[in-house]
Structure prediction request, 323 residues.
Amino acid sequence: MSQRPAILVARAIFPEVLERLRQHFEVSDNPNDDDWSPQELCERLQGKAGVLTTGAQRIDTALLQACPQLRIVANMAVGYNNFDVAAMAAAGVVGTNTPDVLTETTADFGFALLLAAARRMAESEHFLRAGRWDRWAYDMFAGQDVHGSTLGILGMGRIGQGIARRGAHGFGMRVIYHNRSRLDAATEAECRATWVSKDDLLRQADHLVLVLPYTPQSHHVIGAAELALMKPTATLVNIARGGIVDDAALAQALRERRIAAAGLDVFEGEPRVHPDLLTVPNVVLTPHIASATRATRLAMANLAADNLIGFFTQGRALTPVTP
Ligand code: GLV
Prediction:
């Protein structure tokens, strides 16, 4: 009998990554890519020392108590709001995420959503597909300029900085940001970004991109009051997490044209989407795909696997998020 650690891979992933894991571990996987309930995840985790998760599986006290053999949870995601970090630390369970490998791809997508929202690409494409385009008109789908405008960024980690660089260097934008901690002067200079208060950010941004982690403190950080501070010509982009924006308040602001447009890749309670968002025209909606290029998703899966392999073979995870 082999002494190799037993691990669970909670969702379907690249076969080549599963193959790498099988060289080190007894691997149970999820070939049908079922979305297991917390109860079923718990059952499948019995006797497992590690698990590769995708960011959707909640790791909390109840699960940790029910799975005492568990020693590491490797998220294939940079966000880890599915972890109760304090409970994991108390139980001596290591949590890891996948930073860096997705930064540029995700920043690209944030910018794509910004452009699509500001230039009304989804709305105009639906119009064309519906066979409603019968003539040119001087104001047809006239949107907002991106070049030379003011780019606001809420949350200025690696992805926020990637978006700032794209805006400043590629589109000649003035970049302002708000973050709990200010960047050092060299990074601010490289991103050509200026720290402002949250209210100034909301008031001054022509295009506001949200790239902050989801925590109890950032729940509904953009709600009716914040939307009311924004310019009526502004666009809002959320590539961070559902729950950071009050989706019902946003749908109402979009419908009443209190802001011009939005681009959303993440939703409160996804994969459900607030029904009001589905009926307003001035929003571009994508199904949580900001990191979804093949190369980046493969790098994320490999980094999650490397965390498991490093932890069990060298006693050290590469990118831990637990203390
Ligand atoms: C995706 O949302 C991630 O956190 O990587």
